[in-house]
What we know:
The complex is a heterodimer. Chain A is of the alpha+beta class. Chain A has eleven helices and four strands, in the order αααβαβααβαβαααα. A four-stranded antiparallel β-sheet of chain A has the order 2-3-1-4. In chain A, helix 8 (194-237) packs across helix 11 (307-334). Chain A is elongated and about 100 Å long. In chain B, helix 6 links the parallel strand 7 (158-162) and strand 8 (189-193). In chain B, helix 3 runs parallel beside helix 5.
Amino acid sequence: MKYINKNRIKKDPPIKSVKQEVRQTKTAGGNFVDKLIAYRDHQVHVLFSSLSRLIASPFTTVMTITVLAIAISLASGFYILVVNLQQLTGNLETSNQISIFLRDDVSDAHAKKLVDTFKANVNVQEVKLITREQALTEFKNYSGFGAAISVLETNPLPIVIQVLPKNTLDDKQELGKLMESFQQSPEVDFAQMDLQWVERLQSIVELARLFANLLNMLLGAAVLFIIGNTIRLELHTRREEVVIAKLVGATNSFIQRPFLYSGFWIGFISGVSAWFIVAIGMLILKHPVEKLSGLYESDFQLVFLSFGETFILICLSSALGVLGSWAVLVCQLRHTRLE
Amino acid sequence: MINFVNVSKRYPETGDVLRNVSFHLRRGEIAFLTGHSGAGKSTLLRLIAAMEKCGRGQILVDGQDLGQAKESQLPFIRRKMGFIYQDYKLLQDRTVFDNVALPLIIAGFGHHEITRRVRAALDKVGLAGKEKKYPFALSGGEQQRVGIARAVVNKPPIIIADEPTGNLDPDLSAEIMFLFGQFQQVGVTVLIASHDISLITQLNHRVLKLDHGQLISS
């Protein structure tokens, strides 16, 4: 069936293709188990050759991993910060307690009378008086300013009456009314609901959490792009290898494999490095934070990443590595011309 | 084995590179593809390798229509062909063994089978014992033979060679042509692009001659 196109006028009908023959070459020799073993061996080989490739160019690898580890450790740092803040505010009792600060010219005896009138209120469950002297002793003991306070000639602290409203009084408006009624007494300088500042603090922490999440997402995107770009450069330097592999019949997944593993290793090692950076940071901060919390008479303990969280951190950074390289490979391999 | 039916290829920059090319290479047939430079030889080979799709017409490789094949099928079609290049296209950072083993690794062969086949292929091209060498430590002729070993190690039914003797002296060229003859003997279809006229006339094989994108003799 030789054709000389000059003499051809009529076109041949398209020749039917034989599809099943392609299938035959899909499976190479050997039985299924042999192929499975070969596949596993190949995966293991590619996994470790990707690692040795990274080690072979230590300068580039160290630079990339350092940048990534810093980004990941920042993200983990924000996370830990929020967890600790939440722990701190979570411990605060969200009671309905109202603190009433009396004017400076009110005497202790007068204050005691006032306590009695407050006790008479049907909405009040408990009333506690803190005299100037009590407040000063407490402040000297807990604030750490004991020496400074001693220098003062007069006691600057006011008398405080702590009122615990009845539990039936849940509504904020009613609580507000109660507080107003206290405030109307001429002896009272000002009254404040403890709940209010706890709520304020909690909403600040909530805001911090949102902010940290936002930053973490940005850092995650940065990690994704940095790994993607690293793999893109790697793909560029190994372009000839890719083309040759394609020419001898490599599928896209075969070509992608070593790069995906490289992405995995970069992500994994960066995750582990980030953990160490955070751990070192925590070791540095641990003592000062505990000292500070001791000064506040708190048993606050700095919370570090748990075993599960560490596992998630490393899995997440490895996954970002794989995802970043995969995205780049899909885009780039589609445009790789075989030349 | 390779069937071209009214194949045309046009590039936006250069216009028609192939025009209405039709020919059929049967199983076990050996042929030269010749023509001046720019006649479309390389384009024709690229079409067979499914590196590009033809504009019009139909190309069948071992009964499989390249135009109809899905992107995911192309690697499996390429495994039926062994490609040999003028510039060898060897991986310089891999040993001879690894270079030749590449198609087998891709096809998913086991370790023992790979070793056996690579040894056999290297033996066939006269490079036994050079498995551990790197391509840069070999002469041009030896590198070309590594390329040939890689092309045949998977025992493909088709071998496509692009100027395989372009960089070699006449003795080596004859040696390589002898190898191709041996592959043909066992039923392999061989297509060799070359403009080495003396070599072509010396060997009495079928000649496909391209001129400005048209097949003027087959």
